[in-house]
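Hi team,

As requested, here is the filled-out complex form for the WT7 run. I kept the field names the same as last time so the parser does not choke. Let me know if anything looks off before we queue the next batch.

— J.
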Amino acid sequence: MSDKTYPPSSELVANAHVDAAKYEEMYAASIKDPEGFWNEHGKRVDWIKPFTKVKNVNYDFGNVSIKWFEDGSLNVAANCIDRHLATRGDQTAIIWEPDDPTDEAQHITYNELHENVCKMANVFKNLGIGKGDRVVIYLPMIPEAAYAMLACARIGAIHSIVFAGFSPDALGARINGCDAKLVITADTAPRGGRRTKLKDNVNQALLHDTDDVKCLVVKRTGDQIAWRSNDDYWLHEELEKVDADCPPAEMNAEDPLFILYTSGSTGQPKGVVHTTGGYLVWASMTHEITFDYHDGDIFWCTADVGWVTGHSYIVYGPLANGATTLMFEGVPTYPDAGRFWAVCEKHKVNQFYTAPTAIRALMGQGTEFVEKYDLSDLKVLGTVGEPINPEAWNWYNEVVGKGNCPIVDTWWQTETGGHMMTPLPGAHATKPGSAMKPFFGVEPVVLEPTSGEEIHEYPTEGVLCMKDSWPGQMRTVWGDHERFQKTYFSDYKGYYFAGDGCRRDEDGDYWITGRVDDVINVSGHRMGTAEVESALVAHSKVAEAAVVGYPHDIKGQGIYCYVTLMSGEEPSDDLRKELRTWVRQEIGPIAAPDLIQWAPGLPKTRSGKIMRRILRKIAENDYGSLGDTSTLADPSVVDELIENRMNRD
Ligand code: WT7
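And here is what came back:
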């Protein structure tokens, strides 16, 4: 922790949407009278039928139900496109920067966006997609990804984006999980100079498909691809058959807008459901206020649309605000470690939003990659996905922001739809590593982990929960409302439990300390240890596996696997490689184990429960403080594990 604070410049404060006094006033109003507050701010989006009911929320376990603006109707695509046409039809909506910097960038105006989205929506309709149907989007970072999202929204179909880095198995599970009728993909996807065979992955994912899932293919590279025998379509051919007239469907505020699969502490990923009205209000309001976005600014969020950050801050938030949003197909280190800054200079980016893992990776490459470029248009910098260490924060602040750009460290989750805690650029003096203050309507509480009692003192530490609801909150787990209630509302009754720990300092500012459950955060990507374990035990040579996180310089956390082999199997480095490749194939490259330790035995209680606390300590190379091991069935396995530990940093 550092006690130094970084106040915003007086120039920034003078022009900010929200300054310190306004924050206090608005925050107090949002907590004292949520109905009144959201009655006013709910009107920031255009309603077809205005809502008369603001909020209807029940957090009682067994009966959890969350509704916002429930009698209103609207269309998200009309809010993100049509309502801007009269005033900014010729303004750029999306700047697309391709993987290869020598290829030409695209500037797509709101008029063009309208035409492209309407046409794609008509293609979807021709393929039999209607209100409530699920469409899986498995695309690279190309404009068609945004068109597909908005085309779904326009006709009331529910999209579920699967990150293009996920394997065929992971894709197949998500297609089945939400019973999709259509998958939209591309032939191949260039990224960092390499190509991912997306259409091939879809073919594999649908190999045993008996539901006749259709597949629509964007021609991105022209690479050779294999066609399934039927139900495959080229997008460009289908587009020739449609016109650009597609009226937006009238959707109820609580109709699902999208499903996004995310990892939990147990079981397979769950489909987080966000709905239409509350989500859009939340995404657009947080985008405008957190980044202090003003008309004419160029906003760049470097996330992939496969994650919630891309949903809320590449597409829905910015476009609902009539912003110019930048979409980048590539990676931070291609062709070299200066790419982010080259793109900032080229497109005169004003707000830049990225993840700590990217900052740490670039920091290691030296300052010359940043200093080569003119970054004088930058006004606000943002970070998201994991706690940011003060060293990375300082580098971001000094080298990238030249000490002139407030850093908004935004804490939120797939489940929350948008920012929950963050400093506001014109309102708060930031502290390196602190998510600082709750956004309007968010009422964080710190609970004592075992008793669940609220702790009111400062400073303090405990588990982070939310009192009450906010418009962007997830509504359910797709097809499993029970799991929704159990995951978020059962451990601490009457609260939303985020799964994170946090500290509140003497000024009342919040510091996220990381997950308190069996979820790890690898390069800002959330990973359930249970998922990696189940991939490992699916290998014929593996008898048992336990997976934990450990501190990793670049990734934040690395994946540490304890593996017990089937009897008769010999441990070897080749087998380590084989298991790494196996997990990559089962889930995707982001899940590839960093360290694999052969474990003849795992520390278990007499009832057979693996004591993960001990495994975490050994993986952290902190084996001196294992605590009580007397309840173990066989305490000697611990000595063996310590002796052969893989992380000795
Ligand atoms: C988890 C949510 C929200 C979009 C990206 C990840 C961690 C997120 C921060 C931050 C510390 C953070 C939390 C959270 N996290 N932002 N600013 N400081 N931790 O979304 O995959 O749903 O993961 O990411 O642990 O629970 P996600």
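Two things worth flagging: The chain has 20 helices and 30 strands. Residues 110-126 form the longest helix (17 residues).

Thanks,
J.
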